[in-house]
Amino acid sequence: MSLNEAADIYISINSVPQFDELPCNGTNDIISYFAPGLSDGYIIKINRTLNKGTPIKLKFDMDALITVDNSITRLVDLGNNVFKLVLLKDTNLFEFSVKGQFVLLPPYIISFKISGEENCAKPNFGYFERHPVGAEKRPEVPNLFCGKRKAINQLIVNGVESKPGDWPWHVAIFRLERATLKYICGGTLVSNIFVLTAAHCVTINGAAVLPEILGISLGKHNLIGGDVGSQEKQVHQIIVHEEFIHKTLDNDIALLKMKTSVEYSSVIQPACIWFDKAKEKLPPGQVLGTVTGWGFDQTESLSLVLREATMPIVQDIDCIRSKPLFYSVILNGKKFCAGHRNGTSACNGDSGGGFLVYIPYEDSPFIKKYVKGSWYVRGIVSLSVAQQDTALCDPNEYVVFTDIAAYTDWIYDHMD
């Protein structure tokens, strides 16, 4: 069916739209319909035969609200602007509506998978702005409304205590050992139901532990004791990367699916997941990231309050030169090194936590009213060099992180 034919059908059975566009370049049977003012968002139509049980996974570049006909579609919000739709009936013409958090900032589709096949390899960004519908121009940065602190605190220097709400996506992971919950690792909240962490935190000899023995604490500042607004969650499923190798910590990444979704608050918010063009949005020079955790401090004991340290990503060659026998074996193109080699480092107990990079937005009069940038998960604390004759980390050596840039597809494919 041609685009014009599809538009004619739409006009004859719905309120008359003024414009139509292809939201995905090169895919002619997925069409967006919208009217001036965008008060009702826009309609997406798929003009193809789809069978009962067909899964559709959508990702938008910012917050979106999807409305479907519940009699023919099951809708699941996976968080981070990702949605899964499953057809409950056969259909030759499927449609749903999309609205943004702000009327004049409609979300653009950046991924449209039908039965696992990508139908939006070349998203059509900016098409609303090419029509007189009132859409605001905005920077090409996905996930405008994740990675936000809701608490207003002063920024803190390296290696010292944070304040409640500074890192609302950082979580504590506990494991039941001899009838006692023991803190084992950190993690990063990436949706209202998924936590991202290191595979070695939730496995024994490479095999996932039982989800029943894990617990997740969100909104925590104090490792021990109560925190205002904290939430405790049970784990429903542990998803370990299929190619995780526990001896070398290759593919050291896992997702924890909680039994129930979290309620966002000033101390609980999701971080954004890294995206392909993120580095282009950063100022030239070093890429700085922040690591948080309750890991071992200078007294060689777990910190009782959440601490943070900011450190630069370093080139693989510099990392290898610093300790050739260790880093030349560990680095494999899907990991990166970061640190100062000055005592400010991630250590035992910080594993699984995120390496968060702040990405500022380009100037936009509309965006400035709401946000100035977001925190994106760039890496996961994986391993570090141990001190001689001890299992403790050496804070004067670089830390190795799982590189999220190599695993974004894996993350989204498993967040369902």
UniProtKB/TrEMBL annotation:
Any Gene Ontology CC annotation:
extracellular region
One Pfam match, given by its short name, reads: Trypsin
> Where is the protein situated, by its record's location annotation?
Secreted
The entry lists its GO molecular-function terms as: serine-type endopeptidase activity
Q: Which InterPro entries match?
A: CLIP_Serine_Protease, Peptidase_S1_PA, Peptidase_S1_PA_chymotrypsin, Peptidase_S1A, Trypsin_dom, TRYPSIN_HIS
Q: Where is the Peptidase S1 domain?
A: 156-416
Name of the protein described by the UniProt record: Peptidase S1 domain-containing protein
Source species: Euphydryas editha
